[in-house]
Amino acid sequence: MRLSTRSRYGVRMMFEFALKFNQGPVFLKDVATIQGISFKYLSKLVIPLKSAGLLQSVRGANGGYMLAKHPSEITIRMIVEKLEGDVSLVECAENPGVCKRNIDCVARTIWKKADEAIMKVLDGITLQDMVDEYRQSSGTYVI
């Protein structure tokens, strides 16, 4: 499985919002500059994250975006699933009906276990975890 730039850039964008949590709205243009990502690209990513209730927008001169929940309540899995959709390694792991061998396929069992392990890791990391690790490293990581 390879995550697209949607997920990778989406996590980086959400990390910036988490760093500035409780400081008011942040201009998307500023996030784009800090992260070195196209503003136009990020503006497409905020739409599904906002509709999922992970981001909120504020209009006006001092408007922008901010997290709709505390960073400890937003997992990496939530972000990835909203931006990617199904993140299974193989289609039959989530949808056994696509393969006529699903009932006795030993490989499908392996793919399901791998999917579960990946989801467990993504579920176990929150934006707050990322912020804490970043601050412990004195901000020397490049995200």
Topology:
Blueprint: H1 5-19, H2 28-35, H3 39-51, E1 55-58, E2 64-67, H4 76-84, H5 91-94, H6 106-123, H7 127-136
Antiparallel strand pairs: 1-2
Question: What percentage of amino acids are in beta strands?
Answer: 5-15%
CATH architecture of one domain: Orthogonal Bundle
How many DSSP helices? Answer: 7
Q: In which range does the helix fraction lie?
A: 40-55%
Euclidean distance between termini CA atoms = 20 Å
Strand order of the largest sheet: 1-2
Envelope shape: elongated
Let me know the largest β-sheet. 2 strands, antiparallel
Structural class, please?
mainly alpha
CATH superfamily of one domain: Winged helix-like DNA-binding domain superfamily/Winged helix DNA-binding domain
| Quaternary structure annotation | single chain
- Strands, count: 2
Uncertain runs are none
The third-level CATH topology of one domain is Arc Repressor Mutant, subunit A
SSE arrangement, N to C: HHHEEHHHH
**Name of the top-level CATH class of one domain:** Mainly Alpha
Mean pLDDT: 90
Radius of gyration: 17 Å
